[in-house]
Amino acid sequence: MSATPSSPLPPFDAGDPLGLDDLLTDEDRAVRDTVRRWAADRVLPHIAGWYERGELPGIRDLARELGSLGALGMSLTGYGCAGASAVQYGLACLELEAADSGIRSLVSVQGSLAMYAIHRFGSEEQKQRWLPRMASGEVIGCFGLTEPDHGSDPAGMRTHARRDGSDWVLNGRKMWITNGSVAGVAVVWAATDDGVRGFVVPTDTPGFAAPEIHHKWSLRASVTSELVLDDVRLPADAALPEVRGLRGPLSCLSHARYGIVWGSMGAARASFEAALEYARTREQFGKPIGGFQLTQAKLADMAVELHKGILLAYHLGRRMDAGRLRPEQVSFGKLNNVREAIEICRTSRTILGANGISLEYPVMRHATNLESVLTYEGTVEMHQLVLGKALTGLDAFR
Question: Gene3D superfamilies this protein is in (predicted)?
């Protein structure tokens, strides 16, 4: 039944100005609220100190807790995975990144890259061996694709695998690998005589090392490593049997980028909420700065882009749940939402003035984290070219 003209309108909600909660099911909201409570309890009280010190202490405990929430490999089915909808996984990413991008990256790399690769392309034996323990957080995974000299062009990778009898022998380097030094298993992509192949590598294999990368000014509360493979010998069944070529790693990246579409809006929301509260309470010239037109214009513009971005993420999530989400549409979402999230953080910083650079507020931390999110799993330029090719039918990558 449609509403009559005399029906009272619901009150305006500054936290949900478009009424997007109406699009969610009760189960969607329950998932979102559970993750939000966990982040508020386990991350927010400590994250400023972790970021300042450049560490993520207790990562294995955090992984187990996230596993108990069903947040690892959340949208995968079977093998101890939650089998949640794409929208529910997206909402979880939003809440995790509202706490910190490093926490969302931990979950995204574990579930959308390492676990997804094994779930989609692995043998039944590989799935049974690794996925239940990864879903519970007992085993942390990482994903080795990017190399020191090959980021946007993975086809040029130098890491290679050669046959030696029935074994594989891997040599090479991977760079900027989240979870690398704490992982128990790595999914490593290497060039072979038969094209690019994926390998499931236990990290205690001789010849494998993962030195941690320090001196970062972004994603400081995240474990980032190099992977070093020196004559790493693996049995024949370490190779992922169901894929050859770059289609494998690129499909994993598309799945992970989807989480970024949501997660970036979490960082934006946290920054916007900090700016809004500050504008309501900070007084200059005899009244709260939120009462000045220029500040209200900034808040209005930020709110428009924030909630448009969440609506875009929701739309892409429903397409994924329906099996209709194309990689180009994921590029659309990542390109738009991360760019707008960074702008929201920067504008929020101007409202907070000098206080905006302090870790007492989350704004500068989110802004610097998003500088990494902007370029990992596809730079701005790569996503522009993906969309440009889709729009024109002309390949401009080379």
Answer: Acyl-CoA dehydrogenase/oxidase, N-terminal domain, Butyryl-CoA Dehydrogenase, subunit A, domain 2, Butyryl-CoA Dehydrogenase, subunit A, domain 3
Does position 114 have pLDDT exceeding 70, yes or no? yes
Tell me if residue 107 falls in helix, strand or coil. helix
- Which residues have CB under 8 Å from 128's CB, separation 6+? 79
Which structure tokens are listed for 386?
């993906």
pLDDT tens digits along 319-375: 999 999 999 999 999 999 999 999 999 999 999 999 999 999 999 999 999 999 999
> Are 20-136 and 141-238 in the same CATH fold?
no
Tokens of 108: 């995204």
Position 292 scores a pLDDT of: 96
CB of 268 within 8 A of CB of 345? yes
Cα–Cα distances in angstroms (integers) from residue 176 to residues 7, 276, 298, 380, in the given order: 55, 35, 35, 18
For residue 377, indicate whether it is catalytic: yes
> Which CATH entry fits the domain spanning 20-136: 3.40.449.10, 1.10.540.10, 3.30.70.100, 3.40.50.150?
1.10.540.10
Count Cβ atoms within 10 A of the Cβ of residue 390 and give its class: 0-12 exposed, 13-18 middle, 19 or more buried. Answer: middle
Residue 131: the pLDDT is: 98
- CATH number for region 141-238: 2.40.110.10
DSSP string, 185-230: EEEEEEEETTEEEEEEEETTSTTEE-PBP---SSSTTS-EEEEEEE
What whole-number distance in Å separates Cα of residue 264 and Cα of residue 256? 12
Model pLDDT, residue 398: 78
Among residues 27, 138, 377, 381, the one annotated as catalytic is 377
Please report which confidence band the pLDDT of residue 213 belongs to, taking 50, 70 and 90 as the band edges. very high
DSSP 184: S
Whole-angstrom Cα distance, residue 272 to residue 23? 22
CA gap 183, 227 in Å, rounded? 11
| Angstrom distance (rounded) from CA 122 to CA 58 | 30
Ordered by start, the domain boundaries in the chain are 20-136, 141-238, 247-392
* Dist CA 57 CA 275 (whole Å): 29
Question: Across the chain, what does the average pLDDT equal?
Answer: 95
CATH class in words for 247-392: mainly alpha
**pTM, full prediction:** 0.94
